[in-house]
Amino acid sequence: MIKNDDKKSFEMLFNRYHDSLCLYSYGLVRNEETAEEMVNDVFFKIWSKRSFIQINYGIRQYLFRCVFNACTDYFRLNHHLSQFSFVEVDEDINSTIGANDECILNELENEDIQKDVMKAIDQLPPQCKAIFCLSRFDLLTYNEISEKLNISVNTVKTQMSRALDSLRNQLQIFF
């Protein structure tokens, strides 16, 4: 419908995903204004090029991939090196973003919760934080994280378990 200039459909898409995409972007660039600007640019480009866009998988995955690519471009243009090296997200992104993750992201749309979540993630021990971010923000599988960091898959599982336990404890007021 957006391809056919349906502004209402575009507005609904924007309202549904904007906050979740901002949270995702913030997790990568660590600057609220920059994160929101990149997400707004993605939506602007989608509207501007709506008649040419080909989406070969779910819209949610497409939007997250666009934001991910915008973040990598930001780092390249500003000559910043992220703590994590970015990897290209391919069409298998559908299999790495599960239905439960969408529920979690929808819950995090409240701005205050987003800030508390990012603060809790920042307080994780370095290896734990790196593994958590690679899994949840870079959308890597445990095997990919294991290869990338030269650690065992069991270490990845253990660290993810610790990260999630820590986040549950720090954010228990939201559960």
Sheet/helix structural class: mainly alpha
Uncertain segments are 80-110
User: What name goes with the CATH superfamily of the largest domain?
Assistant: RNA polymerase sigma factor, region 2, helix turn helix motif
Query: Which sheet architecture does the biggest sheet show?
Result: none
Count every helix, treating DSSP H or I runs of 4 or more residues as helices: 9
Plain-language structure description:
With 175 residues, this protein is an all-alpha fold. Helices cover 69% and strands 0% of the residues. The N and C termini lie far apart (37 Å). 21% of the residues are buried. Residues 80-110 have low confidence and may be disordered.
Defining traits:
175 residues; mainly alpha; Arc Repressor Mutant, subunit A
Quick overview:
With 175 residues, this protein is an all-alpha fold. Helices cover 69% and strands 0% of the residues. It folds into two domains: 1-97, Orthogonal Bundle (Rna Polymerase Sigma Factor, Chain: A), CATH 1.10.1740; 110-175, Winged helix-like DNA-binding domain superfamily/Winged helix DNA-binding domain (Arc Repressor Mutant, subunit A, Orthogonal Bundle), CATH 1.10.10.10.
Q: How does the SSE layout of this entry go?
A:
Layout (H helix, E strand, L loop, with lengths): L6 H23 L2 H17 L10 H19 L15 H4 L2 H9 L3 H12 L3 H11 L5 H8 L3 H18 L5
Helix pairs in contact: 1-2, 1-3, 2-3, 7-9, 8-9
